[in-house]
Design a protein that fits this description.
Oligomer: single chain
Bound molecules: ligand C2E, calcium ion
Number of strands: 30
Helix content: 40-55%
Mean pLDDT: 84
Number of helices: 32
Structural class: alpha/beta
Radius of gyration: 36 Å
Strand order of the largest sheet: 11-12-14-15-16-17-18-19
């Protein structure tokens, strides 16, 4: 016996107890003793909790054996601990009474040691097996069937109901790992239990539910007319308003049971195939199995079966696609692309197998093979005296799982004596989203060793712009979708984005490659925008490596697009302006000498408009606000001072469009007041010309940057719109918010505000939901007006909004911003209603490194305190407020 089992001996007779304990101890058990039923109960609640078995006398003082059994039944412990009754010469009716109460066996006095040991041992063994079975049958965590038993019971259920129509539904929680990582595994467990209960109820008496994997439930569900109609809704996350974790996505695959000769496991596999078609696709919650899915899966299997052999037998080959200089069309390099010549299936392009290889990890072998082949090829070239061009290989994100990737690559390249700068590594933008830190470290190491890093498919991911300056990159490779012309309307905005990215990359001193260029027109446009390199069918399709040498010979020589420092100048502020005109700066200042200093300082780079007081400034603003790139504003002036100008700008919605730099006497404490009114920064008097110019340059760049960036995000946003936006207000939804939070700048400090409309429910009830929607829209409009372009706004619940004021970490300003939002909402009129809005706010300072739930909890706690004081109030989170335990208060 490895671990001593504990046995509870209950008898009022000391000698009887001593005898039994001696017998049991001799057989290796630990014993605990109780003199009556009550003592036994106390022990069961305390140190006897783990007891494996009980020996129980019937007649005892205080609480006898029957009473104890009754109590144990009531508390449920009778199903946990087997009981052997120790009797004298009682009659049969005693035994019956005991069995009725859940006892398992009997021992008669006087005790025979061997018999006692035997009974105990066999009862323990029996009990353990039984416990094991029930443990296997139901999943310990959720209480629904475990895999084997789901299969078994599902089969029985189908057999018993051969005339009914059933479906197997395979439910997978998308990114469950992330939920565990984000909210903790206890919350993950909680969600599993919640869903299990939900599905158990959903299938009802006619179906069954099981959990067959960590985050996978399967249902066998009878199709009644009722649930046929509503089917898809059942799997929509919207159903789960009261779930313990928010923002999770479910993916459901449905196999309508047609072929009953299939095993349940096969049926589940088919439902799973259906899920696979919608994995990682936002907005898709369910898919119904069709036979073509099976065909595709079988082909994938066939490919997977043959992949090892393909590598050994040289069925993979290297194709090269040239990259040309835009300037003189010379060949500047090539990209290596894999092809598979399959003995049965013929020529297969990577589109069909790369993502599968990425999933099963085989890609690391293919990429290693490609790198080796490319090195061999370059080595041959060099030995033949041909001047080589750099060749890029694709590095899959899966390759980074190997923690010695830099060493492997270097080892391979060095084995062939290839100079590192002849190898470029293409790493897709999206690779950086999974574990940026590790990937950045590896890629930086590779860059340090002299390999050139190309960021592939740039613009297709979401993190791009924020991360750009932090990533080790030498060349930006624009995503093909930005180049290829769709219809004419899209063409216009795509052009904008392209030219923006290209100017941005110049600013960062990174050369750009456009791929997927097919037409002369596309080539011309990209050339005009200043794109450095072009790859695409316009020049050539990928070709077998052997053909590449003769291709090169026919092309013009010498391309130096990568020598960026010589060819690319740093952007001057106006290179962002699309019309080529210099940005216009409005200066408002009452002292003439100051005005002249400003004019002298600014006019080399900017157009300057001078105004002498607030009134003139406002008139100028009214006429030209669309053209003004930045405003320099003095605070103390006759005829309308700076504060009044700010107020004017605010009420005309200009404050978020035009950056305002306050020029103020140093030491005056009007700064905060101006900041409250929407000013962006300060320059103290007397001016330091460099500081002033720096602020102006920054403001102008930021303005153009945000404008273009907005367009850029809108473009991409269209792809995700459905999943990220709240339909009613067009603000982000909760999902969009957490996505946006992922895209904050590294370590950025910001202020988070939760706003809660007071009494919306009451209003809904009395005025109707359409009017309620009006209220929500009104509030959304106010928030939009009160925030800057770069701030992030989301509607995260029926009556709850969240605002992230970016780059704002001053508690005073934070509190002010929150209060102001509440005030403005309180002033807003709901169209056609005599209804006074009121809104409470919880505020917290936060940092990009925190999770959504951390930030949310603090803001929500502050909100709770705000409401406790009085509705319509506003409260800033402070460390002495204990964080409330509730996840949300929707
Ligand atoms: P990618 O890295 O973005 O490669 C560019 C793809 O665009 C190639 O498709 C190329 O043939 C195609 N392409 C080039 N110019 C044009 C054009 O003008 N028009 C159009 N419509 N297409 C053009 P391919 O060779 O089928 O490769 C597809 C993807 O498979 C690659 O996309 C890359 O992600 C992956 N891949 C290919 N070879 C490898 C490899 O050796 N290792 C890894 N990890 N991935 C690879
Ligand atoms: Ca590539
Ligand atoms: Ca690409």
């Amino acid at each position: 016996m490895t671990q001593k089992k504990q046995i509870l001996v209950v008898d009022d007779n000391n000698i009887n107890r001593a005898v039994l304990c001696k017998i049991l101890n001799a057989d290796g058990y630990k014993t605990l003793e109780a003199g009556n039923g009550q003592e036994a109960l106390n022990l069961l609640a305390g140190k006897g909790r783990e007891a494996a078995l009980m020996l129980l006398d019937i007649s005892m003082p205080v609480m006898n054996g029957y009473e104890l059994l009754d109590q144990m039944t009531q508390q449920g412990s009778i199903t946990r601990i087997p009981v052997i009754i120790t009797t004298g010469a009682e009659d049969e009716s005693t035994e019956v009474r005991c069995l009725e109460r859940g006892a398992s066996d009997f021992l008669r006095k006087p005790y025979n040691a061997e018999l006692v040991q035997h009974r105990v041992k066999s009862l323990l063994r029996l009990w353990e097996t039984a416990a094991l079975i029930s443990r296997l049958e139901v999943d310990q965590l959720t209480g629904v069937y475990s895999k084997e038993f789901f299969y078994r019971h599902a089969e029985e259920l189908l057999d018993r109901n051969s005339a009914d129509v059933f479906s197997i539904i395979y439910v997978d929680i998308d990114d469950f790992k992330m939920i565990n990582a984000r909210y903790g595994s206890a919350a993950g467990d909680e969600l599993l239990r919640y869903l299990a209960a939900y599905y158990q109820k959903l299938v009802g008496k006619d179906g069954i539910c099981g959990r067959i994997g960590g985050d996978i439930f399967v249902l066998l569900m009878k199709e009644s007319r009722k649930n046929k109609k509503k089917e898809p809704d059942y799997f929509d996350t919207l159903e789960f308003a009261d779930a313990p974790v928010k923002g999770f996505q479910l993916k459901c695959g449905i196999y309508p049971v047609k072929n009953r000769s299939l095993s349940i496991a096969d049926m589940c596999d088919r439902a799973k195939l259906a899920v696979a078609t919608i994995k990682h696709q936002y907005g898709f919650h369910y898919a119904v199995y069709s036979d073509s899915m099976l065909t595709r899966a079988l082909r994938e299997h066939q490919l997977a079966d043959g992949m090892e052999e393909a590598l050994e037998k040289g069925q993979f080959s290297v194709y090269l696609q040239p990259k040309h200089c835009t300037e003189n069309k010379a060949v500047a390099g090539a990209e290596a692309l894999v092809r598979w010549n399959h003995p049965e299936l013929g020529f297969i392009s990577p589109g069909e197998f790369i993502s599968m290889f990425e999933r099963n990890g085989f890609i690391t072998k293919v990429d290693e093979y490609m790198l080796r082949e490319v090195c061999r090829f370059l080595g041959r070239w060099i030995s033949q005296g041909i001047t080589p061009v750099p060749i890029s290989v694709n590095i899959s994100r899966a390759d980074f799982v190997l923690n010695d990737l830099p060493e492997r690559i270097t080892g391979c390249v060095d084995a062939y004596n290839i100079p590192h700068e002849l190898i470029h590594l293409e790493i897709t933008e999206s690779a950086y989203t999974s574990d940026p830190r590790q990937i950045i470290a590896d890629v930086s190491a590779l860059q340090d060793m002299g390999f050139l890093i190309e960021m592939d498919d740039f613009g297709s991911g979401y993190s791009s712009l924020n991360m750009l300056s932090e990533l080790p990159i030498d060349i930006l490779k624009l995503d093909m979708r930005f180049v290829q012309s769709g219809n004419d309307r899209i063409k216009g905005s795509k052009r904008n984005i392209l030219s923006f990215i290209i100017s941005l990359s110049k600013w960062l001193q990174l050369p750009t490659i456009a791929e997927g260029v097919e037409t002369q027109d596309e080539f011309d446009q990209l050339k005009a925008m200043g794109c450095n390199l072009i790859q695409g069918f316009f020049f050539s399709k990928p070709m077998p490596a052997e053909e590449f040498v003769s291709y090169m010979e026919k092309q013009p020589l010498n391309c130096n697009a990568e020598k960026t420092n010589e060819t690319i100048e740093l952007l001057t502020p106006d290179s962002f302006e699309t019309d080529g005109e210099r940005p216009l700066i409005l200066v408002t200042e009452d002292i003439e000498s100051n005005r002249e200093i400003m004019r002298a300082l600014l006019s080399p780079s900017y157009r300057v408009a001078l105004t002498e007081n607030g009134k003139e400034a406002c008139e100028y603003l009214m006429a030209h606000h669309n053209d003004i790139a930045c405003m320099l504003l003095d605070l103390l002036m006759p005829v309308m001072d700076g504060f009044q100008v700010l107020e004017f700008m605010q009420s005309n919605g200009m404050i978020n469009e035009i950056p305002v730099i306050i020029t103020t006497e140093t030491g005056s404490n009007s700064e905060l007041r101006a900041l409250h009114l929407g000013a962006d920064s300060f320059v103290g008097k007397p001016y330091n010309s460099e500081i002033l110019l720096h602020h102006v340059r920054k403001a102008v760049e930021e303005k153009s940057f945000w404008k273009l960036r907005r367009e850029f995000e809108n473009q991409k946003g269209a792809l995700y719109e459905k999943a990220y936006l709240d339909e009613l207000t067009n603000l982000l939804n909760r999902h969009g918010l957490s996505e946006a939070m992922n895209r904050l700048t590294y370590n950025e400090k910001y202020t988070a505000v939760i706003l809660d409309i007071d009494d919306l429910k009451k209003f809904n009830d009395t005025e109707g939901h359409a009017a309620g929607d009006d209220v929500i829209r009104t509030v959304a409009d106010v928030i939009k007006k009160e925030t800057r372009e770069r701030d992030i706004i989301a509607r995260i619940g029926g009556d709850e909004f969240m605002v992230l004021f970016r780059e704002m970490d001053n508690p005073k300003v934070a509190l002010y911003k929150g209060t102001r939002l509440c005030m403005r909402i309180g002033e807003a009129a709901v169209p056609g209603k005599q209804f006074f809005l009121s809104c409470s706010a919880g505020i917290t300072l936060a940092c990009q490194s925190e999770t959504f739930s951390e930030v949310f909890k603090r803001a929500d706690t502050a909100l709770y305190y705000a409401k406790r004081e009085k509705k319509g109030g506003c409260c800033l989170w402070e460390s002495q407020m204990s964080v409330r335990n509730t996840e949300t208060n929707e």
